């Protein structure tokens, strides 16, 4: 269960450069695809592999590729979504800054499969240093004839551009990303039409996460069937998990899907247990927008089966007792953490990042934040818990893009699993209120 | 052609029709309210979420229901689609939520607002709003600005429907105003003050569903329900010249385009007609204009509260109960 695919050569000195990357088996998949395969065969392999989108939703990548419209004479585009800004998720940044060529190779192979001659990497504005790393790597690839016209003599041409965004979370939503890429205000588009029909510049487009694209060369190398053997059930392959919070060893880990959650959390190969010997209180398993789970529900499902790190097992029990694998932002909280305070922090983020296009999200996120702040100030009443529940239920599913859902789910799950803590804030505000914290959040609000 | 059933009424409409348009073809109670959709402006709609409906059957081919409520103004009908609007209590509850969201930061300054009486948000809150706001925090505030020589912008009242932006995009050359900032501090503004001066810019006032954009030549002159609407026309080189005059005695207080029952203009008019021609001698008056809207502006409005399905006593009861509860908890 400790097989590494994406991060296999991460520790090789100089792996960021083209030379070391090629010496360690880099660009073999590109040669194999361009010289011995047809574009549709690559898509077929990806379909067979069962690779699921690593950006959060877990939609099968091969299926997404096969949806792309192919009208005559219209260019197609591949866009890599590197706008990783979910709180708790930092796997793409790690992958891109250490193995830029893995992404570039994936982009070339995927563009070949989709028939795209221009592709974009939309990178988050704050990660400017990664942008420079990618630019350098792309320059190297152009020099080596891996990008540009007639790649490796196959007749396939590709131009690859890196586009830094302005640092908005909403631009990680695929249609907002496309708007931003076109130079407009990063507001999500109303779907349909989906990007597979009308995307960048009104042409068919596929938007994939960095990790998804970086997995494609490995699938081409080992074959789709072989890749599908890794993992468990419909969760195939390996996944990068960025673990953070109150654990002994925070960092990015590559796990084979299906690894028991308990092993991931407590084994010394991975997170290494809770910091300072404290008890586990809660886990946010896939980035801030997925429902939070109490420790015992995270380790064991409602049926008493051990929880596995896979799309299906984490979603077991629906939102009542399950969560989602999401983007792999693994946040662990120990017994001293205040769920309400943490939730306020998450909600503050969504309030700040709402684009303001549709009313439930624009108004609702701000309202939830103010209500949660009221809890922290010790002025809340019991009715405010129900009000908070009502507000989140009126945001969820009513918005244009999933940001509304992302803002509502943490609130819903926190109330569902930790209602008593909210009640405690109402009943004994003074016992919980921590003065230092109180001044700190007030300063933040004023800013 | 596609057959669609809305609230049990089946209608056959051309392919590509949206659910909202199909509902408007049926008319009556099944029409969902729309604050941001404007049939004459392309790509409008989808933002306010008041027109959400429940699709219980996707189509004849794929009968699965849609998992979430959809915006009826931007969802096209499929053959065999079954839509629930007013018959679904869940949906009405969801719509109530949307209306509440629209109102929490709205100043509710109707007594001093020029739009009062013909305001779509007012109608919407009569029909779907709560008697009492559950929002107890400070409402957001913006400065009032003049975005053009004759247009005043009260950003506090704006619900960000983007209609005026679409007017500027599609009717005027070189859009000079738009949305700046994001989230709940997003605002309509111009980069250079007073910059909106296009010949058709006055239509922004007419498309605004609330009192955010008001006509500076009419501000505070009269309540709209005291004025008499008259159909009139003139020969205009720029536009159709077909307008509605809002008169008090023989005085023309304001000129607007002719609006239909959904508050949409029959034709856009130019700024000359709107601002400059304020004498009865400028116009050929056709006669009184009949306004069919569930609004104060329609005559005899208050006699038909039953039509609006508002149970006044119930609203009062709820308000009193909320008041009592609050006193008890204190």
Task: Lay out the secondary structure.
The complex is a heterodimer of chains A (447) and B (330).
Chain A: H1 18-23, H2 28-36, H3 39-49, H4 61-66, E1 77-82, H5 91-98, H6 100-114, E2 118-123, H7 128-143, E3 159-164, H8 174-181, E4 205-209, H9 210-222, H10 224-229, E5 231-232, E6 235-236, E7 238-245, E8 251-256, E9 259-260, H11 261-266, E10 280-284, E11 292-294, H12 295-299, E12 308-309, H13 311-314, H14 318-321, E13 329-334, H15 339-353, H16 359-377, H17 382-395, H18 403-427, H19 429-432, H20 435-446
Parallel strand pairs in A: 1-2, 1-4, 2-3, 7-13
Antiparallel strand pairs in A: 5-6, 7-8, 9-12, 10-11, 10-13
Chain B: E1 2-6, E2 9-13, H1 19-26, E3 52-57, E4 70-71, E5 81-84, H2 89-104, H3 120-128, E6 144-146, E7 151-154, H4 163-170, E8 177-180, E9 187-190, H5 203-207, E10 213-215, E11 228-233, E12 242-248, E13 251-257, H6 271-276, E14 284-288, H7 312-329
Parallel strand pairs in B: 1-5
Antiparallel strand pairs in B: 1-2, 3-4, 3-5, 6-7, 7-10, 8-9, 11-12, 11-14, 12-13
Helix pairs in contact in B: 2-3
Description:
The complex is a heterodimer of chains A (447) and B (330). Chain A folds into three domains: 18-229, NADH-ubiquinone oxidoreductase 51kDa subunit (Rossmann fold), CATH 3.40.50.11540; 233-334, Roll (Ubiquitin-like (UB roll)), CATH 3.10.20; 339-446, NADH-ubiquinone oxidoreductase 51kDa subunit, iron-sulphur binding domain (de novo design (two linked rop proteins), Up-down Bundle). In chain A, 46% of the residues lie in helices and 13% in strands. Chain A has 20 helices and 13 strands. In chain A, the strands form four sheets. Chain A has a five-stranded mixed sheet with strand order 8-7-13-10-11. A four-stranded parallel sheet of chain A has the order 3-2-1-4, sandwiched between helices. In chain A, strands 5-6 form a two-stranded antiparallel ribbon. The model of chain A has no long low-confidence stretch (mean pLDDT 91). Chain B contains seven helices and 14 strands. In chain B, helix 2 (89-104) packs across helix 3 (120-128).
